[in-house]
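Possible regression after last week's pipeline update?

I re-ran a chain I had predicted before the update to compare outputs. Posting the input and the new output here so someone can diff against the archived version. Not blocking, just want to make sure nothing changed silently.
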Amino acid sequence: MEQPAAQPAVAIIGGGIAGLAAAFFLRDEPVTVTVLEGSPRLGGKLLVSEVAGVPVDAGAEALLARRPEGTELIRAVGLDGDLVLPGSTAARIWSRGVPRSLPARQMMGVPADLEDLARTGLLSAAGLARARREPDLPGTVRDGDVPVASYVAARFGQEVVDRLVDPLLGGVYAGRSEELSFDATLPGLAEAARSRVSLTEAAASLLPAPRSAGAANGGSRPAVFTTLAGGLGVLPDAVAAASGATVRTSAMVRELARTGSGWRLTIGSAHAPEYLDADAVIVAVPGRPASRLLAGVPGAAAAAAALDEIAYASMAIITFGYPRAAFPHPPDGSGYLVPAVDGHPVKAVTFSSVKWPHLQAQAPELVMARCSVGRIGEEGVLQRDDADLAAVAARDLAAATGVRGTATDTRVTRWGGALPQYTVGHRDRVARIRAGVAAQPGLAVCGAAYDGVGIPACIATARRAVSQILAAMRAPQSIGGPN
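New output (post-update):
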């Protein structure tokens, strides 16, 4: 009796949100899926643990609600009832020792309304005078990709970069605006600026029209961010379970090689290797581990080299649970950013229990404060032990807020090599990676290294990778090397 043909096998290397989303998107396809995660747990930079008995995210704590990929996946895995909205998104900048409001109309710190910028008091008189000249300046030539800092400074002056743009970009990438790519980190603004002389006008063209006073009282705009009541750290396990895939942790893939019919993965130590054969492979790990895997694939050397060029920043998140009475004035905003030029180790603070009312409801006597430490090039501060690092963060928090005494509970979470740096030329680099990978039928890549570091962007790369390998598997003669 003839045996039915085995289903094609797909291996996904990496159990972060991108790899797990890829597994989920394959759930209804006639394939078997195995997710291989090298660490002991799933989720990558999504992790939740308790602070003072309350589950609080230790990694990413919000996702963009305006991009549908994240909320669609959450709903698809049955967690839509757990979606919650922020109570406040009113962030400030602690600049020159004074908390200042962010301009209401800005795009990643690039002003869209100079009068709005003036009202914040963020700039010196000379810095504001320089920024006000921007709409009347002649066009600034852009020959290919440029650093964010050089382009924005040419338009508005250096103070706008130091006091606005760099803190906001530093909060997202733990990077520096003098190195980050304008095209890759602010793609919408970079494109809008091609058809407009004024960068103020380009930023304004991408924002909703200002509301009148009457409109402000009559309704609200959709929320920018959302999260899950149990923390975004619960999402990876939910996605893994809903995918139906075989999921393995502590399964480090050391080698990836072509076979006559597809791919062979080498898993585990050199002393006791395990082999897994697959018809298609999705590589969902950071740039340099991906580079090492592709380096052994004939024809993928250019992609491997481009992946190796992507640097990563390390950081730490120190989360405090302070008695509410320890603050002389209860925080009334979601948090604040800190300009690198002011020399403070803490680059950003989120008052999680203000931003997320469900956390305040669980511990009304506490203020949860989340301090982010570490920019690229500042790895020295991260070499301190946990107690010392927490003390550094507590001193900065006290200087900014006046908080007194000792926290009820403290958690230190370190993220080594967590955030890819989209430096100048990043989009060309990604194009080289994808071209090299596309030349290998049955191979695809996804994750934060490519089109955005946020959760929705990572999920979008997973869907793209799935489409790529399905197209290859539907043309099986294109998979595999020579027999």
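Follow-up from reviewer: compared with the archived run. The radius of gyration is 24 Å. Marking as no regression found.
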